[in-house]
Design brief:
- By secondary structure, the protein is an alpha+beta fold.
- 39% of the residues lie in helices and 23% in strands.
- Strands 2-1-5-4-3 form a five-stranded antiparallel sheet.
- It is elongated, with a radius of gyration of 43 Å.
Length: 474
């Protein structure tokens, strides 16, 4: 057969036919074959998949169709080939055509058919490059997902560690503790490490695993479930549960907030937040008492408060802002909270309480900062003053004098002048009232009046009220 191939080569009439025959062989053997002369000029281009579309390379320097980083690699490979007649390994080059089309090719280097010619036989790596790009993208997505998961896990751990309430996560499928915080472990009389993975029902006396979990799930999905109480196995103390159920990764999980069981009242677990001998005072006091977070969110309330706002149960007000039950809303609440946080307490703040049906009741409020921790709580005592409201009058002698001056103007001044004087009287009365209610807190007074702080100072100076009480509290 080699002899027949030689005869065919000799039988061809000219070099053109011989070149076509060689190009056919190269097209079958590789994706791209490029012939270059000693000066780096492309002399021929052939190939099954790429050769037909790259004929315009012929006559151009090979460097013109290579990316910048590929040119030194080709020069080094050609220099090695001319010195040794071979290269150790194929060289991978990136071609660019028209500055918009870039594709990688892996070349082997061979001697050409003509003197001084070098033949580059290449395999198209576009599919490999695309696969590599997809793998890199997938790896980046995995890394991003992993970082997001780590961030979420860090937040979860921090929240579980810093929350003051005892919290336990229990798997519904097997009744085992998935996780819990240190307050919950202390309440159950053990350590967190020993309790993770333990059967939750075994931590209580006379509780079966399946029945106990089913009871907690039913309580979580029921709107009017009775309070759940169980006795701990280690110290025989009564524990109450606030269950909620959620689904994570196809598995149902119970999240339980635990608390020591105390006396029962309409306020329920509202009074439970107050410990020791003061619990009875809190629950049965004649005056309304409320404990809120540092932002005014109701955490506990007694029966007197529920009666004042016509709430049937503590759950109707729990988690709501105390400002929702005050006539001036958040303005009243901000004044009370700011003064409590600044001075530790505030007394005799007069406002009106609003019940669930919009009825108003005149009240007098006191606020006390319970602790100065980041998770500080504020206690409020609210007293109904509607019966003695007529006995209290705000001292506004200057305003009363102004009112008499206005009446004396009738007949001696135009209506426009009288209206202007009356407007000044009303404006002064309003400013004096706001300053008195906020105990000369200029920031709170400006917010209550809907003015900017600068505008309030201008009006205080106008009515000679700037030095009231001898100090500037803001």
């Amino acid at each position: 057969m080699p002899g027949d191939r030689a005869k065919d080569m000799k039988a061809r009439p000219d070099g053109v036919a011989n070149r076509s025959y060689i190009d056919g062989l190269l097209s079958a053997a590789c994706d791209l074959a490029v012939g270059i002369d000693g000066n780096g000029i492309v002399t021929s281009v052939a190939g099954a998949s790429l050769g037909s579309s790259l004929q315009h390379w012929i006559g151009s320097p090979i460097s013109d169709v290579l990316t910048v980083e590929s040119r030194p690699k080709l020069d080094a490979a050609l220099e090695t080939f001319r010195k040794t007649g071979q290269i150790r390994r194929p060289v991978e080059l990136n071609h660019e055509d028209g500055k918009t089309w870039e594709f990688p090719v892996r070349y082997d280097v061979y001697p050409g058919l003509q003197e001084g010619e070098t033949l580059l036989l290449g395999r198209d790596l576009s599919l490999v490059a695309e696969t590599q790009a997809q793998l890199v993208q997938a790896q980046m997505s995995l890394e991003q997902g992993y970082e997001a998961r780590r961030e979420f896990d860090a937040r979860y751990r921090l929240l579980l560690r810093t929350v003051a309430d005892p919290v336990v996560f229990v798997s519904v499928s097997d009744g085992r503790i998935k996780d819990l915080n240190d307050p919950a472990a202390t309440l159950l009389g053990s350590s967190r490490e020993d309790l993770v993975g333990a059967v939750f029902a075994n931590e209580f006396t006379n509780r079966g695993r399946e029945e106990f979990v089913e009871m907690l799930v039913n309580a979580a999905i029921s709107e009017n479930a009775d309070e759940l109480v169980a006795e701990t196995r280690r110290d025989q103390s009564d524990i109450s549960f606030e269950p909620q159920v959620f689904r994570a990764s196809g598995e149902r999980v119970l999240i339980l907030r635990l608390g020591r069981h105390g006396g029962s009242s309409t306020a329920g677990d509202g009074a439970q937040a107050v410990r020791g001998d003061l619990g009875g005072l809190f629950a049965n006091a004649a005056d309304a008492m409320v404990i809120t977070s540092a932002t005014g969110t109701i955490q506990s309330a007694n029966d007197a408060f529920l009666e004042m706002v016509d709430a049937a149960h503590f759950t109707d007000v729990k988690g709501r802002k105390l400002g929702e039950f005050l006539s001036r809303g958040q303005v009243d609440l901000n004044v009370l909270i700011e003064n409590a946080r600044r001075a530790g307490k505030m007394r005799f703040y007069s406002t009106k309480a609003i019940n669930e049906y919009g009825a108003e009741t005149s009240v007098e409020m006191s606020a006390t900062l319970i602790s100065k921790d980041p998770d500080a709580q504020i206690g409020f005592v609210i007293r109904d003053t509607s019966r003695i409201e007529s006995m209290r009058r705000t001292q506004m002698h200057a305003s009363e004098e102004s009112s008499r001056n206005v009446m004396e103007l009738v007949g001696s001044a135009t209506l426009k002048e009288i209206v202007a004087e009356t407007t000044d009287v009303v404006e002064k009365m309003c400013i004096e009232t706001a300053v008195n209610l906020t105990r000369n807190n200029r920031v709170a007074a400006a917010e209550m009046l809907g003015l900017s702080r600068q505008s309030l100072y201008v009006k205080l100076r106008k009515y000679d009220l700037l030095s009231r009480d001898g100090s500037d509290k803001d």
